[in-house]
């Protein structure tokens, strides 16, 4: 790939500042370009760096962690009331813009979001400027574990394309949890339960419809242009989604309300609602072989997931929405040599920030002439191999 002609990035990461975040007391980094390969020993903070960037986009970030768990812990300076912050400057065809998130000392609850220094009432406003998708090693087990992880993966892709999905999803989760609590108290107030179930139906159908729309778009996006990653077909496993294929949304809402009302006694005994958006699952199938991801090897599953992520990024670019940052934590693990090379070559064409991590720079050697290589050690980013510090002091 040496000497390849690369398109100019549309969105650039100009500066990143971390304060009391995870293992970073203070980090100021001004990357010279993209893609970036970040290497370092386990525990050096590579994933934390990607997580910090993921928190700037709508959603709960790469790990889905609690806000209070994101502050730095130190045996010498550990303070329960210390705040944390992530600030970044980007530029695109509109010029430079600053995005920040964090919690102030002694703040509880939701974290703050700022755009160009102004606090946002709705974090979804950031989506007009920034979005992100990612792959982590934990996702290698996506099809061997519970449906909840697969739902979170799918919902992250939906939020990146349709930020309002986060509000519908949160409202649906609140209503579902409230109904569970009411049923647990043996309450028989039908009006109260009906109001909660109405919210579950309205927000739940909207949530499932957004998932269904994304699945249809991804399935129509076509095969990987390089042919290196398998063409995948996604399918929702959800009775509500099945009805949405043939009935209008309002009719499906009425059906779901009726089903929830009829299932009150059964749900009270089970301790949770047995129908709704929180029960959705999805399957992923290799179109060429017909094999489902759940039956495939770890390497095949990883290839299918990367294919979906790349298709999603291409789709967002084609729709004129904000193309996402790609945050790829250990992306080469479980891939064969051919797919490793294909992935690295494909990433050179992305015109948004692309950050990859690994313990060893050698597998990324084909990118040497076209990527920025840095190494993490004790919270300091340096030029790999040279040891030259490229982070500036606070």
Provide an overview of this structure.
The chain is α/β, with parallel strands linked by helices and 394 residues long. It folds into two domains: 200 residues, P-loop containing nucleotide triphosphate hydrolases (Rossmann fold); 190 residues, RecF/RecN/SMC, N-terminal domain (Glutathione S-transferase Yfyf (Class Pi), Chain A, domain 2, Up-down Bundle). 34% of the residues lie in helices and 20% in strands. It has nine helices and 14 strands. Strands 2-1-4-5-6-7 form a six-stranded antiparallel sheet, covered by helices on one side. Helix 3 packs antiparallel against helix 4 and helix 4 crosses helix 6. The N terminus and C terminus are likely disordered.
Strand content: 15-25%
The CATH architecture term of the largest domain is 3-Layer(aba) Sandwich
Order of SSEs: EEEHEEEEEHHHEHHHEHEHEEE
Strand arrangement in the largest pleated sheet = 2-1-4-5-6-7
Shape: globular
Helix content: 25-40%
Count the E strands: 14
Kindly name the structural category: alpha/beta
- What value does the Rg take, in angstroms? 22 Å
> Helix count?
9
- At the first level of CATH, the class of the largest domain is Alpha Beta
CATH topology of the largest domain: Rossmann fold
What distance lies between the first and last C-alpha atoms, to the nearest angstrom?
A: 37 Å
* Overall pLDDT score: 87
How many domains, as an integer? 2
The main β sheet shows up as:
6 strands, antiparallel
CATH superfamily placement of the largest domain: P-loop containing nucleotide triphosphate hydrolases
